[in-house]
Amino acid sequence: MDFDFSWLLWGLPIAFVLGWVASRLDLRQLRIENRQAPKAYFRGLNFLLNEQQDQAIDAFIEAVRNDPDTSELHFALGNLFRRRGEYDRAVRVHEHLLSRGDLDRNDRHRAQHALALDFLKAGLLDRAEDALLKLEGTPHEPQALLALLAIYERTRDWARAGDIARKLDARGEAAYGPRLAHYLCEQALQAPRDEAERLVRQAQQVAPTAPRPGLELAALQRRAGDERAAFETLAQLAHTAPQAMGLIARPLAESARACGQAQRARELLLACEQASPALDVLDALVMLEPDLEQARTLYVQHLEREPSLVVASRWMSGERLEHEELHPLLQKALDQAVKPLSRYRCAACGFEANKHFWQCPGCQAWDSYPARRVEEL
Question: Which parts of the sequence lie on the Cytoplasmic side of the lipid bilayer (predicted)?
Fold first, then answer.
């Protein structure tokens, strides 16, 4: 049977026409999708700028469906979920990004950092730690180290916090010596005496001008019964850290009385009080003054240099009034009025406390409490 070539002549044009129509349909569909994805993306940005996060999330989800290969849309969506507090959805988005084989190295590191932030915000500290440790040697390492430092401080893992502080200090971006000294002192509080003394002396070497290591060392020496050594430590600290004289004054006076160095301590404290009047220094001087009238004179001399309701209240407590029967009521009112003035206040967040803290209980900042009372600020 002979082949009829006329079918071939008809078939070729038909096949060409069908192929052309199919290609046009594909191009049309592609143009529609390309128009839809940017449109949804820009709509999401508009919602985000107007602080309409719910609508922005819906728009970004639509954009991701239209263009599932675009990593930027995933990052935007994951960050929005984290800001909304929907940490499980943020984790799924970033884990999906990390599971993709076509993701380049920079985006992979970025997704790993975003995943760590998701865990951190969700309070899953162990998973956040694992995710942050994987960022070593990446461009996100500095941020990862800071986040790890916050985790170890929060969990009071002072040894590992110290390791991170040393790494950050070695990078030279900021001085972490004072922070490291605090970590060593925190470890010393839980250690046996010999180990505790070694740790606080190491803290002194790390931060020679920081007051806490000297105060902790003096406390250890006092607990061991070596009041003379404690007095010498505190006297030296008064010269190296004069800004902390308010914290040094009382233990200095107590050690001085215990080891027979009251006159030397009185001279040191009096020089500090004359140079910069301070409530705690004045209290330490009064503690060392055997003569009651001379102690009351110290209150008057302080008031001449520095007006103080706290000092006035203390002076008036020993004063006889014309209507003596009203003295208790007046003194009670004064004592109530000066209570807020006798507190310490965090310079970072304003949190007030009756005792001095090295780390603020409110904002967790270190060394944010001045060694002076509210009235003196």
Answer: 24-377
Confidence at residue 83, expressed as pLDDT on a 0 to 100 scale: 82
Write down the residue that tokens 């706290």 correspond to. 310
End-to-end alpha carbon distance in the chain: 112
Low-confidence ranges of the chain (pLDDT < 70): 1-71, 73, 317-327, 331
Q: How many secondary structure helices (H) and strands (E) does the chain include?
A: 18, 2
What one-character-per-residue DSSP string does 162-202 give?
HHHHHHHHHHTSS--HHHHHHHHHHHHHTS-HHHHHHHHHH
With a CB cutoff of 8 Å and minimum separation 6, the contacts of 94 are 74, 78, 111, 114, 115, 118
Closest residue by Cα to residue 237 from 227, 226, 228, 247: 247
360 is in an annotated binding site: yes
185 labelled binding-site residue: no
C-alpha 70: how far from its chain's center? 35
For 226-318+333-338, CATH number out of 1.25.40, 2.30.29, 1.10.3210, 1.10.3470 equals 1.25.40
Q: For residue 375, what pLDDT is reported? A: 80
d(CA 213, CA 181): 7
Q: What was the pLDDT predicted at 34?
A: 46
Looking at residue 202, its pLDDT comes to 93
Q: How is residue 358 annotated by DSSP?
A: S
Q: Is 272 one of the annotated binding-site residues?
A: no
Can you tell me the distance from the alpha carbon of 110 to that of 98, in angstroms, rounded to the nearest whole number?
10
User: Of 133, 145, 203, which is closest to residue 170 (Cα–Cα)?
Assistant: 145
pLDDT at 200: 93
Per-domain boundaries in the chain: 226-318+333-338, 341-377
Q: What is the CA radius of gyration of the chain?
A: 35
Q: How many CA atoms lie within 13 A of 73 on its CB side?
A: 23
* CB 152, CB 167: distance < 8 Å: no
- What is the pLDDT at residue 339? 81
Provide the token pair at 216: 């902790």
Contact 128, 120 (CB under 8 A): yes
pTM for this model (two decimals): 0.75
Nearest CA-CA partner of 139 in 183, 116, 105, 187: 105
pLDDT of residue 300: 79
